[in-house]
Every structure is written in structure tokens, then in C-alpha cells.
Amino acid sequence: MASDFPDEEFVALFEQHGPAETARRLGLSDRATFKRREMIERRLGRQIRAPGAMNKTRVGIDYPGRLEYEIRNGTVLVSSDCHYWKGIVPVAHRALVSFIKELRPKAVIKNGDVFDGARVSRHPPINWEERPSVIDEIEGCQERLLEIQKAAKTADLFWPLGNHDSRFETRLATSAPDYARVKGFHLKDHFSERWKPCWSVFINNEVVVKHRFKGGIHAAHNNTLWAGKTLVTGHLHSLKVTPFTDYNGTRWGVDTGTIADVYGPQFTYLEDNPVNWRSGFAVLTFVDGRLLWPEVCHVIGPNEVEFRGKVVRV
Q: Shortest CA distance to 159 belongs to which of 190, 180, 135?
């Protein structure tokens, strides 16, 4: 039985032949194979890499805040910049939950700025506007993330930190530094342990998901140009896919837009100016470990999104 297969032989098989062949020889699913690798890594205190990954990264080097993830066949849904406020359920969020149930992704990534931090913002209040308290925002985030958790069931959940997310701990670190490492003083303490916090997620060592890198209107192009990999980011709320091709083949710069409604109350500091933003999220599909052309789900109306040439009501 696969469960009786010794750890040292599993490691040798995985590092010599990779996850797909390991799964085939042991009669395991891809998910079960990666889960066992994770358990053995915790026991050994080191990473177990497939042969391709070993050739592309420096073995034995740990990158603080980086999580590595491998997927052979299936989808990964990436959304960002939710800026959740309690009582507001954006169209893109409803679509995301619906798509998770339908597509049954292997992983869901909330790519930064789940938490808005309105009262700890760098933007001063405008016209005595009402802003939610930190606890109201925390509760709002908990409600929306719980909806995703229930829909995602056994999918892996990742949360690369965004600049708005960091406001929670930055304010506390500045005002009460002696409480560092006390439970409750870190944003992750308020959410399910299913959400794995990080700075970045490296998928198959070819696709990098992180909150931000380059800025400006050409950020998606410059991100993949400078990273040398497909780079999936949020932060700029643009929702677009930009291909880049060179001698190494084609890779993509992906901006995952914003889950929040573009003209929601979180953004009153814009003073009702037009913005080149779009609400939605990205769908990454992998076949035999290779990323296909990334797709986006785009909000086009009060209860409508477009995806793969169809209008979907949510």
C-alpha cells in the first residue's frame, strides 16, 4: 500500500522522477502525493523538490515568505484587492464564490489587500465621512473568507500579503512594539489557519503570484519582463493579461484587478475621478504542468460578469 511506502523511498522517487511519476507508481492522486511530500518536509525540516525544480532554483536556499506549489492538471483562481467592508458583498466576490463551486480549483489565492484598513489609512477623512472600525473590517473579512472556504472545500488557500493588509500590523508595531508576537496582534491570527500567509507563491517554479512588483500603466509587461517568469499581481486594479514572448517562449504579466466595486465607498478619496480599473479576478489553467493562456472574469453590470464569451448572472 502507498501508506506503507517508506519516507526515504518516497523522497528518492519524488526527487528522481517528479510528482506525476511518483503518483502513478504509488497509485496516489496528485493532491495526496503533494500532501505526503508536505508532511515529510515538516518531519525532515527541508524541502523536497522535483528534478526540474532542482535545476531552476538553488537547492538548500530558503526564501523567507515564499511558498512553493506544484500542480499538474487543474485550475487556480487568483483574486486581489478585495478591500472588504462589512455589509458590502461585491459582484466580483459573488462571482468568485460561484466559480469556485463550478470549477473546483486546486487552489485559491487572495493576492493581497483583503483587509482595507480605512481608519489606519494614509488618506485623511473627507467631509467627516464614516469609516468602519478595525473590528468591523475584520468581521467583514471573516464573513467573506468563510464563504470562500466553504465553497473551496479541500482546495489549498494562500494569502500573499498586500500593502493594505500590512497596515494592521504596521500601526500596532508603531504604537505598541512591546506586544510583538502576542496572539491577536498579527492579521493572520484573526483568520482560519487554512489561509497560508506569505509574500509570494511560486507555482511549478514558472508562475509567481505576489501582490505587487513594478508600477505604472505598463506594469504587467514590465513585471514579466523583469521577473523572467509569468507574474500574477494585484495592487493596480487593472485586470488584464499581457503576453511577452522571447527565445524562452511565451509568458504573461497578469493583473488580477479588484474584487471590490470600482466606485465603492472604500475609494471616496478618488473624488469621483475616472479610474482605469476593472473588477474581477483571474483563472489560471494548468495542463500537464503547463500554464495555458490566463483568463479573466470581468464584472460588466450590477449582477453580471463575462467569462469565456458568455454573460453570467451572479
A: 190
Cα(130)–Cα(119) distance, rounded to whole angstroms?
10
Distance, CA of 229 to CA of 213 (rounded, Å): 13
Q: Which of 53, 62, 70, 66 is nearest to 15 (CA)?
A: 53
In the chain, where the domains are located: 2-60, 69-313
Edge-first strand listing for the sheet containing 240-246: 66-69, 200-203, 207-210, 230-233, 249-255, 240-246
Q: Are 160 and 139 in contact (CB under 8 A)?
A: no
Distance, in Å, from the CA atom of 141 to the CA atom of 144, rounded to the nearest integer, reads 5
- Is the distance from CB of 231 to CB of 241 less than 8 angstroms? no
Report the pLDDT averaged over residues 24-48. 81
Residues facing 285 on adjacent strands: 75
Residue type at 240 in one-letter notation: K
Residue pair 162/113 in contact (Cβ under 8 Å)? The answer is yes
H or E stretch at 151: helix 134-152
Count of all residues that appear for the chain in the document: 314
| Cβ-contact 92, 279 below 8 angstroms | yes
Encode pLDDT of 105-122 as tens digits.
999 999 999 998 877 766
Rounded to an integer, what distance in angstroms lies between the CA atom of residue 230 and that of residue 220? Answer: 10
Q: How many CB atoms lie within 10 A of CB 72?
A: 18
Q: Which of 35-39, 132-136, 151-155, 171-175 has the highest mean pLDDT?
A: 151-155
**Residue at 248: amino acid letter:** N
Beta strands 295-301 and 280-287 are antiparallel
Strand 195-198 and strand 295-301: the pairing is unpaired
Choose which CATH entry (3.40.50.1000, 1.20.1290.10, 3.60.21.10, 3.40.50.1240) describes domain 69-313: 3.60.21.10
Q: What is the pLDDT of residues 153-163, one digit of tens each?
A: 999 999 999 98
pTM across the whole model: 0.80
